Amino acid sequence: PVDSSLEDLEKAREKFESLIEPQLQDRAVNEEQDYVPPPLTTSSRKRRMLEMDLLESLVDCDDAIDELINLWLYERDVDSAKRLQAMEQHCSPGLVEEEADLRAMIEEYGLDWPEPAARLATLLYYKGRSEESMEWANKVLRVKPWHFEVAYLQIMNCLRLDDDDEDDTQRVWKFARRILPPLNESRKNARRKAWVQQALQDAQTSLMKAEAALEHMHQPEVRDNSWQ
Q1: Global pTM value
Q2: How far apart are the C-alpha atoms of 103 and 96, rounded to whole Å?
Q3: What is the pLDDT, as a whole number, of residue 125?
């Protein structure tokens, strides 16, 4: 009975959040401008604060890596996470069904939950379609610049497409700066500390944008009566 009540409460929470984010399905996945997150809810704020705490803990320890990956998976809701997990257990010929399912999830949820797009980028890489993979990975990194798994995927894509010219080399180094550096106590974890500092700065900026979106949503509409 207790578990059932908690499940009902979680479903109610999800329904409420969907009601205050009606623009979610209208958010274009191909836009190139700066990503603007949806308005904050109480639960999304808690998840963001937890994410920042986990990022901060990476400064001298790797324990939070798996927790972050799990948080990104369950960021939307339990049922959606289970849909993604189910795809890991299924392998259709040519991964055609999985690709279609991931594209459907992106169409349904937009990029505010970037994990389906991250999984699609990975799937496209394994199918040898690195240019498409890079496009989707870039979309994810506009939402979560600190998504170290996708940054690593971008390096793999760059190496596969590398033509040994200067632009490709610069592109590799660009994504290399985004991957999570290994701990190195002999150098006082200097690179790891710099990465964490940048990740927290990016996460804080995203949080401030979400707070601004919430404040804007609550502002009364100003009518222009100058024509009267």
Answers
A1: 0.79
A2: 11
A3: 97
